[in-house]
User: Fold these one by one.
Assistant:
Number 1:
Amino acid sequence: MRDDSELLAGWRSGDLRAGEALFDRHIASIHRFFKNKLGDNDAIQDLVQRTFLACVEGRDRFRGDASFRSYLFGIAHNLLCDHFRARQRGRRPIDFEALSAVDLGVGPLTILGQRREHRLLLQALRRIPLRFQVVLELSYWEGMTSFEVARVLGFPAGTARSRLRRARELLGEELAALTSDAALRESTTANLDRWAEELRDGWLRHDKRGRRRKQ
């Protein structure tokens, strides 16, 4: 199996199948990136398409000094911020370090985890500031290193590590605000890797079923 750099090189050389393989490899992750930050399925689909369109248009601007995945998520992150800015046009500038998806008017999820921990985690993630939500989800759902997260968000790797620590603290505060069940809070916090992995895999299966029905 060719890695991303090989597929990208083939695509730049005119191999359309290489480009399609590159998109197929990453489309589920990009869809998942938008899914827990937007309540509108049409908006999610639009931003997914715009992410890959921007990648097509700017494919020769990718310098290869980071992973292609970081480059792609960087595009997705910028488009997400632009989406919220457009919704707030004419109002105050948005501080993504302070405002959460809930603050920005995102509606309820249409798909929730079956376990109580899943539901609680998704709710809490949407209630912490968007920039910290992104850091947590890139780390736990996408398995990105601090360096990769830093490349996506445009700050040093050391800053990414400190943001991750702060994001976990904020998540713990929201979990405490959402439930008085100490055992549930402890289970969700202590097993964050596990719940994040189960949610990621569950959403991936759901998205694959949805794509098969559309075919």
Note: The first helix runs from residue 4 to 12.
Number 2:
Amino acid sequence: MSNIDALMRLSPVIPVLVIEDPARAQPLARALVAKGHPLLEVTLRTPAALEVIAEMARVEGAIVGAGTVLNPRDLDASLKAGAQFIVSPGLTEPLGRAAIASGVPFLPGVASAGDIMRGLDLGLDRFKFFPAVAAGGIPALKALAAPFHQCRFCPTGGISEATAPDWLALEAVLCVGGSWVAAGI
């Protein structure tokens, strides 16, 4: 899939994964896909992350993305590892332009009106609202979504299994990201 909107609509919750051991990658991906979570965001927070992406990409039904992509270098490495979508905690012009040029579905992080306007200037209208709770939570996202009615969001950062339904009830929210999904698997 090349459309970030379509990917965001596949599942209401995207597991956000920090994995140290590549041997866990395929079993975890299989378990998450079996539980109805085909979209898997592997954060680039560990030395094993790129290998984990490559391993998970081999699992049937898994659509594996790279998270915590900070620059075009991370983008290139993630794509070479097999990432099928890219998530960043923020939006810079160099990363935005590189992601757009690559054609990969891209979900940049935003936390303010200026961030969203920068994304709109680049032709983007789907965003990760991050860090969701620390950036003001549901009231902040409602306030941002009002003037940017054409935008849709994936709040991530501080979302829990208990609070996810409140976020998902917002018209501007297509999905949420959460690390709780993989706990205990």
Note: The first strand starts at residue 13 and ends at 17.
Number 3:
Amino acid sequence: MKQEGTLEKMRTLRINPVQYFLTLNNNDIPMNEFVGKNISLRYTGNIYCTICNKKTYKSFGEGLCYNCFANAPENAECILRPELCLAHEGKGRDMEWETAHHLKPHFVYLALVDQVKVGVTRDTQIPTRWIDQGANQAIILAETPYRQVAGLIEVKLKSHFTDKTNWMKMLKNDFDSSVDLAAVKARVKDFIGEEYEQYISPNNEIINIEYPVLEYTQKIKSIGFDKLPEIERKLIGIRGQYLIFEGGEVMNVRKHSGYEIILEV
């Protein structure tokens, strides 16, 4: 099989194990089928902005040309810092986009990756967000009417939980299996204050997520097209947005969004 196209974040379906699809030239390629096989990924040297499709010499912020990186609503400051979102006040880089994405119900969640982390995502990104982070488990903590409120709750919790993912530990499957997310959630009221208690979700379901990984290794090395124009390796697993190769080499697909490649299996 041979397919050519521009990389974008892998699409996923939460069927344990998670089903991964790489979209190239509008074709969804089921990547789980290739776990345990040799695959070749060859970079053509071309990069195209994932928003405007303009050819760019460099990818900024995971697949953007410089103009979109600086001006597009998809890369506004409140993407990484939701507490700064002012869409509910009618302010933003593009109010049509803000209305469609940020004036929507948002969730604050707890996810067990290498440790318990807190995060924010909109309603349509559950469980995709947790899968993209490589979480073992996740639980909904709070439901809010728009993005800023969720961000303010997250800020309250950052002194108690990390908001970062240790990607190397995640790819080693190094985590504390004794953690009880429901019990952790029960303690959160002590941290957020009465102002935000009304948003705590009664949903205490713990979502368990499994990944198509044949084996985990304790030696991890990141590789990419900027130094290796062709990557030909045995694929032994997929987790988060990483392809895991035999010997512990890993490639972050999302980081290479916009790169034009040729996939051969």
Note: The first strand starts at residue 2 and ends at 6.
